[in-house]
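Weekend entry, working from home. Most of the wet-lab plans are on hold until the incubator is repaired, so I used the time to fold the two sequences that have been sitting in the queue since the last round of cloning. Logging both here for the record. First:
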Amino acid sequence: MSTRRLGEQGLQVSALGLGCMGMSQSYGVPDDAESVATIHRALDRGCTFFDTAEAYGPFTNEELLGKALRGRRDEAVVATKFGWDFDGNGNRDELNSRPEHIRVVVEQSLRRLGTDHLDILYQHRVDLGVPIEEVAGTVGELVAAGKVRFFGLSEAGPETIRRAHAMFPVSVLQTEYSLWERDLETDILPTIRELGIGLVAYSPLGRGFLTGTARRAERYPQDDYRRLDPRFQGANFDTNLAIADAVRTVAEGRGATPAQVALAWLLRKGEDVVPIPGTKRRRALEENLAAADLVLEGADLARLDALNDSKTAGTRYPEQFMHMHGR
């Protein structure tokens, strides 16, 4: 697989990455053996960019990835995230990006991942209680110490990005970007391109909606995040089917799958964009990676671009969580 450069500090990753969160939470019952086999298959196919976080599980996803990469760590680019406290039951609690907390989390992540360095360290969500300059400076110290290679932000807005970058270079921003979530194109994408920061697109398949296999929220198990997703609920679901249908139509015309079309569209948005579709199954991984060979152009590309003219129905997170995104 080809590689892409993210940011101006020398970060090189595979053109498609693998989001590992769903291997440990949110989307059905975990299957560690299949997840490890999926990670190994990704490495074999040249997909070497893996995304995790202490909050996934929590903690168990880093442990799973560390186990899978044992003996192959030098083949991988590993990204993880800090930014939360956890209560005594292991549940995610308040945001916490205090410098002393970041240092502790990094040591814990290094241990769980079984490595001596993190390739990318993201602030998971902007913590308004801690100046972003303190966060950036702390990560800069960890870079100088050799424990972190590159600094990233997740779900940050233009002002935060600029302030952080002025303190210590931000190599990459991770945020949601897909055929049904394009709000970042107005302000965020121009900002990071001005500053020379790469983009990692999470949920590039709309949590499965764009693949054409989505069900209504109430049809998912109680422990599946999509039961809470506003875009899978009621009238929103019905409205959003038009987007999935358009993707399916293009896919049928190209002899591809809807997932491949959705990912190929993102790959056409710029060499500084890297999608990280998540899966815990080798079959889905193979399908996703084939998107790197699908070139969209002409009428197909125009039809997909035009989907932005009709607003996706529903917020991308439940209302009680929306205040933590895009600040």
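Second, folded right after the first finished:
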Amino acid sequence: MARKDVKKVVLAYSGGLDTSVILKWLQTEYECEVVTFTADLGQGEELEPARAKAKLLGIKDANIFIDDLREEFVRDYVFPMFRANALYEGVYLLGTSIARPLIAKKQIEIAEKVGADAVAHGATGKGNDQVRFELSYYALKPDIKIIAPWREWDLTSRTKLLAFAEDHQIPIAKDKRGEAPFSVDANLLHSSSEGKVLEDPSVEADEAVYQRTISPEEAPDRATMVEIGFAKGDAVSVDGKPLSPAGLLTALNALGKANGIGRIDLVENRFVGMKSRGVYETPGGTILHAAHRAIESITLDRGAGHLKDELMPRYAELIYNGFWFSPEREMLQAAIDKSQEFVEGTVRLKLYKGNVMVVGRESATSLYAHDLVTFEDDRGAYDQKDAAGFIKLNALRLRTLASRKRKLPKK
């Protein structure tokens, strides 16, 4: 792509050092008009400074977009993913992964609105986010031009970034001078910390790394009880109070934080081929995941539930690898959403020092039949003699195999 062909670019802009340097670099190297887009995904930071910084760097008001996407993020991305009980490699609740398609979608919408011919992001050439952003861009606008500065420029160190910033009068926060101790990404679902002091997986992360939770050791000595209500697989209330998707996740985050819930320290396999160590915090999501599995346990048929569990790793991998807008993810989503038709009711949980314990669940659509499972007189609801034929039929092939083994000569 020739740089002279780019006239206007929409940049995913946080207002931090990296994206501010990218903004100025685009202006100087591509000599193009830059439009900034800042998404409020509940990262917990004031976003107006990003507007002020963009204006300081020469961006016109009409070219600065700051959108509150918290409700859309939880309703249309987080909740559909949680209907699937998605976990990547058995532990990761995909907090960073699920945010990227929404940011990319909004960038493309803004690009079409303002007539931009390119989009840009600040993801490095070693990570997963470059893949997630760019697969989403291409899925939504196949002919879009993409600029990934970290794959083009020679600003390959923090020292060079700082020197570029100083040369171009880009304000630098005092805590950004020198080597940052680790990199943090956050949204309403989670925070992730990676790099620098966390790169040795044998060394325990310092308590200062944690952004969203208190330590389990410091959590209250008394358990917190919470009740979560569900309708069609989505959480709709906390302790009987109806809440919006973002409001509900915010409430669960507060409960999780106060009880030291949602910390994981993992080494994961990145899509680009390397392993990386990260410290992730998903306080509300950890509670929600446990509650959703609990309400499914009494409302979801065995066959449907087991099939969902078989599909889940593939679904989670698609999200992790950036294929949210792929036909296969949409096909899986249709099946998952169909399974949630009768997933409704309430779940009671006990939160205590980093633990989430299900203590009760009930539903008007429950498949749990007391008359069938009771050890007391079941009044003819289940004839235990029928089990003999059931077992013999299932044992037929095993008995046949055993008979063959007996006939073979001993070695």
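Plan for Monday: verify the second prediction. The longest strand covers residues 33-40.
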